[in-house]
Amino acid sequence: MKRIELLSIIACSALLFSLGCSKDDDSPDPQSGCLNKSWGEQTQAEVEAVSAAAATFSNEPSKASCENFRTAYIDYIEALQKLESCVPIPNQAAFAKALEDGKIELAKLDCNQDF
C-alpha cells in the first residue's frame, strides 16, 4: 500500500476525532450513546487499535498486518457511526463527509497485493 493512502486514512481518522463534542456537552438522551463524553473518550479503544495497526502495517507490510489494519479501521468507523446522533447540527455535514471519505479510503486498501 502506498504511504500516501495510509496517511490519508489516518488524516480522515484525525478529522473525525477532532469533530468530537466536549466533555461538558449535555446529551439530550442518555440512551443515545453520547453519555456526556467526548468522542475521543468513547472511541479511545478503537483509536488506539487503529493507531497500533497502522504503525504495524507501515513498519511491517504484509497481508496479515493489512487485514488487522482494515479490521481496526472498520471497528473505528462503526464506533463513530453509533455516535452520529451526538453530532451537533452545525457539524453533521462535515461528520458525514469525513465518515464517507474514511469509507472510500478504506475501500482502496488492497490487502491482496504483494507486499
Overview of this structure, please?
With 115 residues, the chain is mostly helical. Helices cover 63% and strands 0% of the residues. The radius of gyration is 15 Å and the shape is elongated. The relative contact order is 0.19. The model is unreliable at 19-31 (pLDDT under 50).
Provide the fold topology:
Elements: H1 3-18, H2 39-42, H3 44-59, H4 63-81, H5 92-108
Helix pairs in contact: 1-3, 1-5, 3-4, 4-5
3D shape: elongated
User: Segments where pLDDT lies below 50 for 5+ residues?
Assistant: 19-31
Instruction: Indicate the proportion of strand residues.
Output: under 5%
Helix content: 55-70%
Radius of gyration: 15 Å
User: Count of helices?
Assistant: 5
- In N-to-C order, the SSE pattern is HHHHH
Report the count of strand segments: 0
Please give the alpha-carbon distance between the first and last residues: 8 Å
Alpha-beta content class: mainly alpha
The biggest beta sheet reads: none
Oligomer: single chain
Mean pLDDT: 79
Keywords:
115 residues; mainly alpha; elongated
Summarize the structure.
63% of the residues lie in helices and 0% in strands.
